Amino acid sequence: MAANTRLVEPITLKGFQDFLPEDLLPRKRLIRTIEAVFERYGFAPLDTPALEYLDVLLGTGGEGTNKELFRLESPEGEAIALRFDLTVPFSRLLAQYPDRVKPPFRRYAIGPVWRADKPGPGRFRQFVQCDIDVAGAATVAVDAEVIAVMGAVMDAAGVSEYCVLVNNRKLIDALLVSCGITEITRQKHVLRVVDKLAKVGLDNVRRELGEGRIDDSGDPIPGVGLSPEIIGKILAFIGLSAPSRRGIIAQCSENLPESPLVQAALAEMNELADALDALGVAEEHARFDPSLARGLDYYTGPVFEMILPSAPEFGSVMGGGRYDGLVERFVNRPTPCTGMSVGLDRLMAALNHLGLVDAEKTPVQALVVTMGNVPKAETLRLAAELRAAGICTEAFFASKKKMQMSNQLAHADHCGIPVAVIIGEDELANGVVSVKDLRAGKVQREGIQDHDAYREAGKAGQVTVARSDLVAAVRALLQ
Amino acid sequence: MAANTRLVEPITLKGFQDFLPEDLLPRKRLIRTIEAVFERYGFAPLDTPALEYLDVLLGTGGEGTNKELFRLESPEGEAIALRFDLTVPFSRLLAQYPDRVKPPFRRYAIGPVWRADKPGPGRFRQFVQCDIDVAGAATVAVDAEVIAVMGAVMDAAGVSEYCVLVNNRKLIDALLVSCGITEITRQKHVLRVVDKLAKVGLDNVRRELGEGRIDDSGDPIPGVGLSPEIIGKILAFIGLSAPSRRGIIAQCSENLPESPLVQAALAEMNELADALDALGVAEEHARFDPSLARGLDYYTGPVFEMILPSAPEFGSVMGGGRYDGLVERFVNRPTPCTGMSVGLDRLMAALNHLGLVDAEKTPVQALVVTMGNVPKAETLRLAAELRAAGICTEAFFASKKKMQMSNQLAHADHCGIPVAVIIGEDELANGVVSVKDLRAGKVQREGIQDHDAYREAGKAGQVTVARSDLVAAVRALLQ
Known about the structure:
By secondary structure, chain A is of the alpha+beta class. Helices cover about 40% and strands about 20% of the residues of chain A. In chain A, the strands form four sheets. Chain A has an eight-stranded mixed beta sheet with strand order 1-5-6-13-12-11-7-10, sandwiched between helices. A five-stranded mixed beta sheet of chain A has the order 15-14-16-17-18, sandwiched between helices. Chain A is elongated. The mean pLDDT of chain A is about 90. The interface between A and B is large, with 126 and 126 residues.
């Protein structure tokens, strides 16, 4: 086909990933684990298309998103784009199907999202999010359930050391109002600066809240222009810490002036603490942290972020919060919503780092190997028999030069197939098959230098059985 | 948020689908069924990104594809597009990772593909394909395995009446050469015409093989310009039929002149028949059909198409064949490949039509319902207890006006949740809970007109148990 044409370079798009079986099998297992947790907490699955109208994704008021989109045109010439998250499509759905999707509604969605960001190590332009959201319930009891799900995913993934940091937009709003910062763009500016705490450090946050600073590249970063006294108040507040959720609430109460706003925020945090207790969420697994400012310009109530104390370099592997305004992009009907998103790629990387991912190279359990002039039909018959018994079986067929026994066993080894079923002319004539445990042979051979001893060890775990005992013999080896 | 901005219309992109839980749950079940079959036949999963370089998808020689693509630009300004199938990305992979993906290699891939075609009933611009492919084995024994997988998917989906139509590009080539049609564009023209048989009928095929015809719209369709004698030969050949695979081979043998090409093609069909027999594929489940011309301009050996005799209106729900040249777009290394693709959306529609899809509205098994002034923490504790026992549980929280008992039970009913756990102030005071089988109540109430009788019937299947017996009582109802 390509004889007269230039070859195409076989490469993956920049910022995108291919998953070979050994990458994909643990991912699929993790997705199934997450799905099971989501369903246990009462969530039902939903799926929406990869592409959406640009208006749906961005809104018409320019509130939009700071995410970079993959934009294109529909065949009808409309502006469309690949979705950048699963939350906006969920909001569209809530507005679009009022008769089928009635609040209270809990849904989970697992699928790829796309961002045309600059890719980097561990940062991809297509990545999978696993989301839960609850629509139609304003109570923070539901936020507590979302936090409990975040922990349950970690438990199910085998992680014991994890912590959901929890803050509340209302608490920060109360703080800002008490500091006389009431204008919304100014409030958001403060939140953006506080959100940089981990990245730029306390001193730089102090400067950015004040007169601004010059960054490393020499560019000026304009400041919010707050007085040192107000800055002191804000920094004291975000520095609060205590060993328990109620301890933090008490400290917040001491550090904020009495006002209806403050009282409401504290009452909500108390209610959240009650609900977390009722759900059995341990103190060390969900901590109130007034410094958490992630997405506070977007969320309207509690916000959550999952960190791994034993693998802090992976940052936030899940995050979420309450967003009570998004559905109003589509319909004039208040729809309180809360939810969270698991970054599957980042979580997978963290689990790998923590040694919590069982290697799995293939689902294939047996390879039927053929020697000499055994008809292909014999190979196929053996494979069919094993498959009928529910054993995942590959029949080896390749180019002629790869049909040697050593090639066939090397193939099984390369793919990680544990059992080989061998039929040669002798076996065929005698109505028997040989069944070989490839893991056993491998272990036996390890470290052996002597050639004959190596060969002998390679025969370990090999038995010859009657044709009629094939399935039983393979099952015995697989156990 | 939307107070000062125009509302966005909440609509799905033209030609795209949303899947609500009752749509998605059976789809997910079917995907798991298909995955299990693929793994049983020795295939391992692979995944590639949604986007590819345009060159990768189309080749540089213009051989390309007749599919309409969703094209866009990468952030780096390169020409890219959404993938239109899973086969081209697989070919790229084979060329890209020679050390990790060594032939013989069997992979399956399940995922969305995109085509910017005109949408219509049952035709979508994003749809899911479930593909298997085998690389590195030229023997038709592997084609037989692919055909066996097609049948095994149908068996697993509960379909008994199905048939894989099988033809062979080599057989048609032998026919064409024997008719003196040796030029490749002329050969492809003949194949395209023959492929229209089901759509336009025998007479129109005859005209298009000859002088051409005027179609319904008055447009001229140019003909291939064959003589009546040659046309007769071709039509006789594609009209061949017999009750068995070997019967067809015998008829082909009679209808084709002796030549090395013909002998090779017939030998291959005989080998395929042997392999299908060895795999236990019944005659009625895989039939040789010389009229099948699907994709014959693309495939290089056997071609397959799955039809459902009891639901012919769904057309081909799976299709595939041998394509030995595609990998050579990327690398000068012959890599024989064969495979097939399940059109998940079309198969799902056919299964629905055949009544083979069990309805499933939600994975949620129990709804914890609260009445009166019961603290939310009680609801959460009950839910946590059920979840700890592995029961998928939703705790009901909604806006205040929806917190009435009737709303809560209507919600369970709407979502299809089978069991309600009820805790009111009395239950709380007495250390008990009520557990209600919502399906039983529904059945009991059916057809009852009298109001009191209706209420009484609604209590059917409701029991009050000690708090400590909650899990056991719910389990009993779920069985």
